[in-house]
Amino acid sequence: MWTKVLTGFGYWDVYSWLAFFVIAGGMVFFIRSLGRKDYRQGTEQDEIFYGSNPVPEDGEDLKVPASSAYWGYTQALKPFYEGLVGLHTGLATDYAGWYILVTAFVALLILV
Amino acid sequence: MIGNFPYLVVGILFVMGFIGLVFERNLVKIAIAMSVIEAATNLFIITLGYRTGGSIPVWTMAGGGSSRMVLPTPQALTLTAIVIGLATTALMLSFIMMIYRHYGSLDVRDIRRLRG
Amino acid sequence: MNWLDHLPALMLAVPLFGAFIAPLTAWGGKGLRNAWFLLVSVVFSVLAILLWSRVGAAGPLIYVMGGQGWNIALPSGISIPVRILMEIDAFSAFMVLLGAVASLAGAVFSVAYMDRFSGMEKFVALYFLMVTGMFGMEVTGDFFNFFVFLEISSVASFGLVAFWRDRGEALEAAFKYMLVSSLGAMMVLLAVAFLYSRYNVVNMATLGKVIEWGMVEKTALVLFLTALAMKCGSVPMHMWMPDAYAEAPAGVTCALIAVSQASLYGLFRVCFTIYGAFMGSPVIPWVIIILGILSMFIGVSMAVIQKEVGRLIAYHSVSQVGYMLLGFGVGLLALGDARAMADYGFTALKGGVFHIVNYTMYKGLLFLAAGALFYATGSRNLNEMGGLARRMPKTMVLFMIAAAAIAGLPPFNGFVSKLLIYESSFAVHPILAVFAMVTSVLTLASFVKIFQTAFLGPELKKFAGVKEVPGAMLVGMTVLAVAIIGLSLFPTWSLNNLVEPAAKALMDQTSYIGAVFAAAATGGGL
């Protein structure tokens, strides 16, 4: 029950991972305990730094929307993504068409 | 040759159904194409079970009956498939009806809010 | 006779009975209906566990509907297989167990999630019909019944996807799903007819015994392969999947995942048990591997750029199914070659089977968490969400567990099955493992995206009134989270007891076929 999972090439041992997390957690808390002791909640110390500008009231004006996530990645792969999104036309007939096409293609591969 | 004629019909029906399914724009016509494919499948199965000159496939344990019977299993399969086909067709048509209420159109090109 | 002998029949009868009684519970009000919903779900889950442990102890189980033997002897002495036969080997029992757990979680979640809506007795009836269809596909030993159950589960799921029929999108998704799905079901029927035309049987075990490798069989195999691969959402036939999964109510999606796994089960039953060693050429295994690679990569690429929570997670379903197809494809490639099988084939099969259980659990949980977000905020759009960790800490923790598991972060279970698949596919060709790993990286990236935009970030004013979701929804999610943690902490136990018997059953064609004929020889199936 407490043994490793052998994959034929390597192994997976969840308990060493758990031990790792315990040790790493201990180290994190140790380093944290070395930190400054004069932090107080609710004072100016935990105020948001917003480039010295007034911080907006609503979080809506602060947050990064999901569509901005991985902007660089999608920008770099723009041709790939344009092609890919272009394939997902949303036409019901295309869905059926792809299915028939794949069936025909696989049939061609194996029958010929 | 004439014995293979039903298979030819099945083939033609399938091709017609596929073409309708892929190239038609109207949802109702797509539903019709789907029904044509169902009919083709059913015809195919029923033809498989047919034996020339066969009698109805009722075999009593007491014996008797013709020595040649059409196969009973395909008929059972087809009956079930017809019932299922009826249900799916009805459901599909009611979907189409409700889609028309929401989108005001039956053209597949208009019914693509979900994409990408 | 022990009532446990009737487990296979009860597995179908209980949810079916539940479905037909459900409309009547409308008279008893909300309480009765919910009680019925939960009671039937718990009962079939318990039955699934019993069935699984029985199959594990006694080997493949044969059950004949309404009779002792599976064949009928005519006065002339000919013995023909006529009865409705069910056969449950370790792989089927494993799939039934998974399906039951996912359906139970979906049912518990739906009790609270769907509380605001009317027509719930119909919802419950459709839900149980879908579950019946799923179990039927997994326990049947007969191809025609497989088709019938496939249609039952599909038609019920069309209705469930379109349950919120005041939303045009839900109807659109249901229509698209229905179109490809009925076409696929027709192709399955056609394949059954092809095999029937050649061998005059629709019984899986008998077919597996007599089948040869000819033109008709090839055609039937292609039809089965593409139809069932479409039903489990492999690229490029996956496009219905994000639509349907994102638009269905979350509890339904959780069960729909298990239903799509039943199609996967059918695919591998056909490939391994019926065709098995007769799979002379490596074409079909490679087709499965390539479908798997495409699904993994394209699915996850599309997921990264999605803006809706449901669609993002649904595209991940496509990519996770790719992992299973890859694992099983590699296993299929090694089938019939004892040395390759021992080297990497069996590892790949184990990885594939283990990935099925992992996937069903964490993907169900992810959809439920996405449903919880929708329930609390009324929005599906990630762009509008933010700062919800303050409002919904429990949902956040549950989501985190599932996201870490799907991304394969240690110490969670997702990595174990992926590791098995990586290492075995590496033995076939390194490029396969490369694709699998890139997919894993992008998976992590897209879940970081959901987590960051939905849960982290500054508090939003419009969500000031958002509260944690009701207890029943949390319980539904916790069922799956506990399963994930259990699978993570005891990987050896789960591999030895859950996965290996299933993988062995899949690999061992003769035991599936032999069980039926042994039962026939002794004159009794029970």
Summarize the structure.
The complex is a heterotrimer of chains A (112), B (116) and C (526). Chain A has helices at residues 14-33, 71-76, 78-87, 92-111; strands at residues 5-6, 11-12.
Topology:
The complex is a heterotrimer of chains A (112), B (116) and C (526).
Chain A: E1 5-6, E2 11-12, H1 14-33, H2 71-76, H3 78-87, H4 92-111
Chain B: H1 5-23, H2 27-49, H3 72-103
Helix pairs in contact in B: 1-2, 2-3
Chain C: H1 7-21, H2 29-58, E1 61-64, E2 71-73, E3 79-81, E4 85-88, H3 90-113, H4 120-139, H5 143-161, H6 168-199, H7 204-210, H8 215-231, H9 240-247, H10 250-275, H11 283-304, H12 309-334, H13 338-377, H14 393-407, H15 414-428, H16 430-455, H17 471-489, H18 491-507, H19 509-521
Antiparallel strand pairs in C: 1-4, 2-3
Helix pairs in contact in C: 1-2, 1-4, 2-3, 3-4, 3-10, 3-13, 3-17, 3-18, 4-5, 4-10, 5-6, 5-10, 6-8, 6-9, 7-10, 7-19, 8-10, 9-12, 10-13, 11-12, 11-16, 12-13, 12-15, 12-16, 13-14, 13-15, 13-17, 13-18, 14-16, 14-17, 15-16
Description:
The complex is a heterotrimer of chains A (112), B (116) and C (526). By secondary structure, chain A is mainly α. Chain A has one domain. Chain A has 4 helices and 2 strands, in the order E-E-H-H-H-H. Chain A has helices spanning 14-33, 71-76, 78-87, 92-111, and strands spanning 5-6, 11-12. A two-stranded antiparallel sheet of chain A has the order 1-2. In chain A, a hairpin with a 4-residue loop joins strand 1 and strand 2. Chain B is elongated and about 60 Å long. Chain B is an all-alpha fold and 116 residues long. Chain B has a single domain, classed as Orthogonal Bundle (Helix Hairpins), CATH 1.10.287.3510. The N and C termini of chain B lie far apart (50 Å). Chain B has 3 helices and no strands. Chain C is mainly α. Chain C has 2 domains: 1-277 and 510-526, no CATH class; 281-489, no CATH class. Chain C is built from 19 helices and 4 strands. Chain C has helices at residues 7-21, 29-58, 90-113, 120-139, 143-161, 168-199, 204-210, 215-231, 240-247, 250-275, 283-304, 309-334, 338-377, 393-407, 414-428, 430-455, 471-489, 491-507, 509-521; strands at residues 61-64, 71-73, 79-81, 85-88. In chain C, strands 1-4 form a two-stranded antiparallel sheet. Chain C has a two-stranded antiparallel ribbon with strand order 2-3. The mean pLDDT of chain C is 87.
